[in-house]
Amino acid sequence: MTPSARLAAAIDLLGALEAERRRPADAIAHAFFRGRRYIGAGDRRAVSAQAWGVVRQRLRLEWWLGRLGVAPTSRLLAAAHALLAERRLLSAVGGLFTGDRYGPAPLSGMEQGVLRALADQPLVVPEMPDGPRLNLPDWALPGLRARFGEDLAAEAAAMEAEAPLDLRANLLKGTRAAAAAALAGEGIDTEPTPISPWGLRIPSRRPVTGSATYRAGLVEVQDEGSQVIAALADARPGLRICDLCAGAGGKTLAMAAVMANRGRITACDVNAPRLEGAALRLRRAGVDNAERHLLVAGDKWAKRRAGQFDRVLVDAPCTGTGTWRRNPDGRTRTGAGDLAALLAKQGEILSMSAELVRPGGLLVYATCSLLPEEDEGQVTAFLARRPDFMPLPLAGAWAGARLPGVPPSCPAAAGPNLLLSPARHGTDGFFAAVLRRAAPG
Predict the structure, then answer these.
(1) What are the residue ranges of helices labelled H in 259-358?
(2) Which positions are annotated as active-site residues?
(3) C-alpha–C-alpha distance, residues 227 and 250, integer Å
(4) DSSP states of 334-389 as a string?
(5) What are residue 117's phi and psi, to 5 degrees?
(6) Confidence at 409, pLDDT banded by 50, 70, 90
(7) What is the pTM of this model?
(8) Beta strands in 195-341 (DSSP E)
């Protein structure tokens, strides 16, 4: 494809993302390229890079266009990104709007005027409000300020960086060292993750799912922070564990590995396609001690299984603020209304999950959010409702999970809980609290 044709495809992809703004961008992009198989691998990467550049900088680009009094069309967003973020010359950007068969239509007079006004401007200027200046949506700023204080700018910058590719060695099929050696044999160099004892990090992102090592189930793609959350569940051979919001089963896989396929894990979710995806991953990893359960309205499963689990892991649905470096569309796909609805849902899930824990068992509440109201706020409210649960200090939970040294906390302490952040730990943002249900007597 010519550079002009790549730009036209990127504009089309941005249009598709805008039309379905409530859906995850990666799912929309996958469908977009599946319907355009004539776009080769190299061109797909180039088109994706252009579109994702706009997605990452959309708040700033929209501020600039709003300042000029124009709507943020896909054409103007793509052109503005080329000028402001990529620092390309006005003549070069304008020259891509060729109007030929595969290129975007020529710039209108209005569009030409907008681009002239943007030419030679920096992406960030002092007069920007805090939201676009930090590349954070206004609705999330209060919570993030409360969390990070004077370190917010550093965390915001880390959220803009591209996330590394983390893998988890599958202990059912070998050690971390063996997995690293197998990948190295395929020309994929890794380094051990500093916190998770199972993790491998690929410094420069590259595809691994086509490798023989991955296909054989020796490794799984999983952020180091997510690995640590799974470790805090303190899964052990012979235990009965519920992964209540299992999704595609990443944490189920991690817990099954340290259980050596002894004991039982029940992976639950409300999304059937995600659970089906978990089944494929479980088979590849060699897990045979896990079952799946689809939660549906009116389901009596939770009542029947009350008090039966040694561990219940709740990776609760949340705003995903901790994953914005990986899912930059979350900045504009989620809003204040979503936060309010999620807070109610998190409280309901915590109440349901508590009934599943046996006396003396552990409840692990986790989110990939950095907002205190989704994290400590939910735990505090839950403990007020359920005095039969007590929080475990992080040091104790860490030792129980047989993990190496406790990582330094973020500047705003999470009390007895775990808080990981992109700037401080190089992981996605994660929160976790480990709560023990009182035993009788």
Answers:
(1) 272-285, 301-304, 330-333, 336-356
(2) 368
(3) 8
(4) --HHHHHHHHHHHHHHHHHHHHHEEEEEEEEEEES---GGGTHHHHHHHHHH-TTE
(5) -70, -30
(6) low
(7) 0.92
(8) 199-202, 219-221, 240-243, 264-269, 290-294, 309-315
